[in-house]
């Protein structure tokens, strides 16, 4: 099983240009503070600078997406368009859900250079962990670890 190993992520934050490749989970040991903190930093609310303890299941979801892409020799570097959002930031967004999973540290809006958003959407749905929102005109896919649902934005 893909989760039965050390878990690494390769992420980039589009708003700040920050990049990170780090291990957040060591197999047989558990979550690693340094890697988990790096993930929380990259998934922070960039507008306010507020970091949040993101749900480890979100990191595993991103890991599963990257793992499948790596196994199939496809581009896998994830660009984070949006991660955690403060309630104030979320309220300023016209189309954001009032109870957005972003405010709980459960969601990320992502894209992968060299991989079409339609393929990324299909892959996220196949993983089947939570919500998947398809935003082809904005060039990203929303993934979260809330209840399973899907929508087009």
What does this structure look like?
This protein has 153 residues and is α+β, with helices and mostly antiparallel strands. 28% of the residues lie in helices and 27% in strands. It has 4 helices and 8 strands. The chain has helices at residues 33-42, 56-71, 87-92, 117-127, and strands spanning 7-13, 19-26, 30-31, 78-82, 107-111, 131-135, 140-144, 149-152. The protein has an 8-stranded mixed β-sheet with strand order 3-2-1-4-5-7-6-8. The longest helix has 16 residues, at 56-71. It starts with 6 loop residues before the first strand and ends with a strand. The model has no long low-confidence stretch (mean pLDDT 96).
Average pLDDT rating: 96
Beta content: 25-35%
Distance between the termini: 33 Å
Number of helical regions: 4
Which helices and strands occur, and which strands form pairs?
Blueprint (H helix, E strand, L loop, with lengths): L6 E7 L5 E8 L3 E2 L1 H10 L13 H16 L6 E5 L4 H6 L14 E5 L5 H11 L3 E5 L4 E5 L4 E4 L1
Parallel strand pairs: 1-4, 6-8
Antiparallel strand pairs: 1-2, 2-3, 4-5, 5-7, 6-7
Name the descriptors.
single chain, 153 residues, alpha+beta, eight-stranded mixed beta sheet, 4 helices, globular
């Amino acid at each position: 099983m893909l989760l039965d190993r050390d878990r690494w992520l390769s992420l980039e934050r589009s708003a700040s240009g920050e990049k990170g490749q780090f291990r957040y989970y060591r197999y047989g040991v558990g979550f690693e503070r340094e890697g988990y903190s790096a993930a929380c930093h990259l998934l922070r609310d960039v507008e306010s600078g507020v970091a949040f303890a993101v749900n480890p299941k979100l990191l595993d979801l991103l890991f599963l997406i990257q793992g499948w892409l790596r196994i199939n020799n496809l581009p896998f570097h994830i660009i984070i368009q949006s991660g955690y959002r403060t309630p104030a930031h979320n309220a300023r967004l016209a189309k954001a859900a009032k109870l957005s999973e972003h405010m709980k540290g459960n969601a990320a809006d992502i894209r992968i250079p060299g991989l079409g958003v339609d393929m990324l959407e299909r892959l996220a749905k196949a993983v089947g962990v939570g919500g998947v929102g398809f935003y082809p005109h904005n060039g990203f896919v929303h993934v979260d670890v809330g209840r399973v649902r899907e929508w087009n934005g």
